[in-house]
Amino acid sequence: MQSAGYTITVAIDGADALDKLRRDTYDLVVSDVEMPRLNGFELTSHIRQDPALQRLPIILVTSLASDDHRRQGLEAGAQAYIVKSQFDQDSLLDTIQQVLGHEG
């Protein structure tokens, strides 16, 4: 993402991400699902419940490929769910541009 010109902030886990989101302003969250303390589904739910963050776009990137996991991520409020086995940098960048409303 940095090589494409995006400024990124790294969080060590979901709870750290939520703390950072509440302290600073971001345009987008790209999160793994499997994280300690607060997983990506829980992080997404917390973001959607926070009036200051609820409109923040969220992309989940994970190795969890089942339809149930995808549905869980989208029901939690993620705009996109990318499975790591199907992942490539161009598809992630295309998804980011779509979620942010930019033309590719």
Tell me about this structure.
The structure is a single chain. By secondary structure, the protein is of the alpha/beta class. It has one domain (2-100): Response regulator (Rossmann fold). It has 4 helices and 3 strands, in the order αβαβαβα. The model has no long low-confidence stretch (mean pLDDT 93).
In short:
With 104 residues, this protein is an alpha/beta fold. Helix content is 40%, strand content 12%.
Q: Pairing-aware structural class of the strands and helices?
A: alpha/beta
Output mean pLDDT: 93
Shape: globular
Q: How many angstroms separate the termini?
A: 14 Å
Features:
single chain, 104 residues, 4 helices, 40% helix, three-stranded parallel beta sheet, 12% strand, Rossmann fold, alpha/beta
Task: Provide the fold topology.
Blueprint: H1 14-23, E1 29-31, H2 40-49, E2 58-62, H3 67-76, E3 80-83, H4 89-100
Parallel strand pairs: 1-2, 2-3
